[in-house]
Amino acid sequence: MAKKTSIDLTQGNIVKQMILFSFPILMGHVFQNLYNSVDSIVVGNFVGTTALASVTSSEDISRLLVGFFTGLSAGAGVLFSPYLGGQDEKNNHHTNNTRVVFWGNFGGGVGRVGKKNGPSEKKQTNPRPPRARGATRHRETKPQTPHKH
């Protein structure tokens, strides 16, 4: 027996369908909050207050972006849902392709802006030398060879 791979949200109990539809989104937000909480705990305990302030201030930006794109994704469903519900394959296919092309171009544009304005790869692969006390002296010390008896 073939397994059913799609769910028809136009048939059946609407409350159950809405809960099944929104559960993955809810779990995504739960895991995003859990990640942010653990990140704040680890950074606060092991790195310091300046890093904690940096992490918690960037958390709001991250939450804003996740919410924005979740909303855009749900809004995109409004465009092709009449065609999907009306079983109009041609218009559904056309609308879905337009959505994929739009998001592909948008993602490529954001990637190009990030690549142009972000830190260079050289800076990421060549970290500053260690600044721990005695680290430079230790690095310059030649290893001792064992004495033969």
In short:
The chain is an all-alpha fold and 149 residues long.
Order of helices and strands: HHHHH
Rounded mean pLDDT score: 75
Q: What oligomeric state do the depicted chains represent? A: single chain
Q: Tally the beta strands.
A: 0
Relative strand content? under 5%
Q: Which structural category do the helix and sheet elements fall into?
A: mainly alpha
Number of helices in the DSSP assignment = 5
Low-confidence sequence ranges: 135-140
N/C terminus separation? 79 Å
Please tell me what the overall shape is.
Answer: extended
Q: What proportion of the residues is helical, as a percent range?
A: over 70%
The major sheet is characterized as:
none
Radius of gyration equals 26 Å
SSE order and pairing:
Elements: H1 14-46, H2 49-85, H3 89-117, H4 121-125, H5 135-140
Helix pairs in contact: 1-2, 2-3
Description:
The protein has 149 residues and is an all-alpha fold. 74% of the residues lie in helices and 0% in strands. The protein has five helices and no strands. Helix 1 packs antiparallel against helix 2 and helix 2 packs antiparallel against helix 3. The N and C termini lie far apart (79 Å).
